[in-house]
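Hey, can you fold this one?
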Amino acid sequence: MDDEMRTLRREVDRTAAERAVTRGIIAFANGMDARDWDAVRALLTDDAEAEFGEGPVSGGDAIVASIRRYLDHCGPTQHLLGNVVVDVDLDAGTAHSVAAVHDLHLGTGERASLTFATLGDYHDDWVRNAAGWRLSRRRKDSRAVVGSFDVFHRG
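Sure. Predicted structure:
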């Protein structure tokens, strides 16, 4: 294979990796909104780490449990993503992504009139393994919070 073909193949591989990571970011958000915890967990490495603003969380199962502490107690949610940028290191099998997020949480039951929303960014690290691209670290930086945290009432 000549140099031009190798360069082209590398660009195709990089584009495919960027697309796979972008799909992973979207699948994670969709899994949270659908309360499909198995799908969310499948996107995480076993030793994944997360920081959502309340201290570090370690381990894929613990991350899902942390998310569920909130989403299992509110009504419908929608995590909208945009401005996604993915940087891939093909040789290392790693990637870093940043995605803007606007998440809306609605109340349920007697709290149905309440809403809670944030504006922020997900900063994610990804690794490629036998299962594909998996999330190894997520940090959410929030720029704004609007509404009532009572949406997540656990009573």
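The chain has a mean pLDDT of 96. Let me know if you want another pass with a different chain boundary.
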